Amino acid sequence: MKAAFYDDDEAIPHVNAAMRFASKGSKESSIKNQSTKDTLFGVSLEVEVALLGEGGTKLFVTALLDSGCSHSTVLRTAVPPIYTMRPSEITFSMPNGSHSSTREAVTMPIILHSLTPPRSCAVNFQVAEKLIYTIILGVDFLVDQQVVLDFKSKIVIWDGVEFSLVGNQPIRSLGIRNGHQPFRSNQLEYQPIRSASLLEAAEDRWMRILGVMNSPVALEKIVCRDLLTNTQVQSALDLLERYKTLFSGAIGTIKLPPYVIPLKLDAVPHVCHPYPIPESHMASVKAEIQRLVGLGVLVPDIQSPWASPPFFIPKKDGSMRLISDFRKLNAQIIRKYFPLPKIPVTMRSMRYKAFKTVIDLVMGYFGRVLAEENRECTAIILPFGKYVYKRLPMGLASSSDEFHSTMLHLLGDLDYVLVYLDDIMVVSDNFNDHLVHLDVVFARLCEYGMMVNPQKCRIAAPEVEYLGYMLTPDGIRPIESKVDAIIKIAPPKTRRQLKRFLGMINYYRDMLPQRAKTLAGLNKLTSPNVPFKWTHQHHDEFEQAKRLIAERTLLAYPDFTKPFHVYTDASKLAMGGYIEQDGKPIAFWFKTTSPAQANYAANKLELLSIVCLLTEFRGILLGHQLIIHTDHKNLLYSKMGNAQMHRWRLLIEEFGPRISYVPGKSNVMADSLSRLKTMDQRRPESICALTFDPTSIFPLDLATIADHQAKDPDIVDDMQLRRQEISGHIVFTTPDGKIRLPKSLPRAVFDTYHSWLLHPGSNSALNSLKEIFHWPSMSKNVSDWSKSC
């Protein structure tokens, strides 16, 4: 639980970041969001509530509405004596690794004065001895009250009323101060609520391209008013109104001859078994397939000799997104690399343009119709049937080449338009010209049946970000995040850290023509005969070396006619990597691992580092020859025993890379970036916990488990087991918090896990099951059942 428990009476510093919930059609009420610091976790907001005491008296308190906290909690001294507490032991862990517990719970009614009119409800609270807030309303409360937190649109929907967040400060969440105790329920690992990461951005892009927008966006919201008069704003809106069907978000059909997939002459159809689908997801999967059939993206098939297995990603609303695993098919496609424009060269030669518009095409790939003659090769196989794509699918090796050639056919002759796949930018010297240019672009998009995503558009803006560059009134500059990984390296504190830094610097010795002179003092300090004492001279040399490499990297523009080489590495501390061409760096990348990521296996962490780097520099890498160098040989193979890793592997497939093995000792730069500390690097102090929802882990509810446990005498008579309340159900657990399964359930649980994890080996399956369950002969059972698969 973030910022919940504390051990001292020191004052709580906070930032007065006033937020207002402006209710549509109701009285506006102020809500204050006090924050100690920004974190990567959920939103925390203050709300006014009243506790009902004896005789109907009310105690008004400020409660923390915290989407990063699993269980609602109340301060013991605030509980009126009329309420009876019940035993309920929930374990939480402190940053130093020790554990403590809340031992009681209580159900109390509260009145929510932040709603108009106020309403009352009963809440199940854990009782804590010390809290920063009198009450913390966690995810269990949000679920019970059906509160919707829409981070993308910055709105909150509560009790049927929609609130918009208004104010200059962003939503912030509360972090744990030193000495405070983060909450981790039942000693289970939870995925924290956090802001969008690079990986999430990659998955979101798949969602955006594969999904159909149903809710239109008000066109006035996409017009940038910074440089425009009221008359000009109205002129822009009039133009958008003429093309409002272009911004509807509906699926389009590009009016070009159908696309023939370029298969090799010796291509041989392949067939894969369908991936298993959990029974709890089957209805949602079938609904998504029928939706795509209704949109004309898929068509049922029984004739195709091909069969690729699809993969499904659950959405927050319970529906599914389809991603097809075309890796076998991609190996039999002739990749026709279509020359993408040299964006940096084009922008460097471009004169200053006052007005810029960025246009994003939604579902661009699905707008391209596939030729009937060989679309059978896109057949996907499911447990309940077989389907063929009628539209260009994501994940196909040639999709990006074909789509970009289509876009250049549409807009390539316009010298005021830059096109890179589904990203379009229109630039003009003055507003009148800009309207004319936009008119031409919109007309062509309409003529060819394209559709635009209004949520990603900016019309007539003075400053925009485009493919890794900022176009500003002062000129064009690269995004400095390219060299953040170098700039933020902290001064070494040991001789070993210094040697690692110098090894990284020497890797690019050609970029430092006077390297011996620049690094003279640092080189001497590596000698065991010289005391390691960091002086101002050493610090100056250290900073100068970083600055020289950073300056030269910012000036290095990629050559899109040559292959890109990507190197990554990962450690428990961080992930790092870089992009290289002709032995020269194009960009550096660095990311601190989260506490959960630090527990990943080495191959999983390595795969994550690749996905994150590709996502960060997608604008440079996508659609070009790409070679990924890794020191983990198992990443070269297609089979992934972990469902999450399998999904990441499919995200990589969009880039159509060739993966090459490089020995770890040769991966000097990436290895150094992943192990050198940065100046702002620190572990997040908090560990968030979501409500324990067993149905999201296995298809047996806690009531069923409790019922089977009660019928098993070996469990009922075992004095070493504990009776523990989990989500309102009393179940038997081991002393270390694992659910003790009765004799009737282990095989059913194993079969579910084994299917969901895509039939892993016995060790992987056992490790996954041990995170939550325990039963006698567990290791032997899992080994025997895995062998019979």
TrEMBL record:
Keywords, comma-separated and alphabetical: Endonuclease, Hydrolase, Nuclease, Nucleotidyltransferase, RNA-directed DNA polymerase, Transferase
Domain of life of the source: Eukaryota
EC number(s) from the headed UniProt entry: 2.7.7.49
Keyword Cytoplasm recorded: no
Domain Reverse transcriptase positions: 294-471
GO molecular function term, any single one: nucleotidyltransferase activity
Pfam families from the UniProt entry: Integrase_H2C2, RT_RNaseH, RVT_1
Annotated coiled-coil segments of the chain: none
Name under which the protein is recorded: RNA-directed DNA polymerase
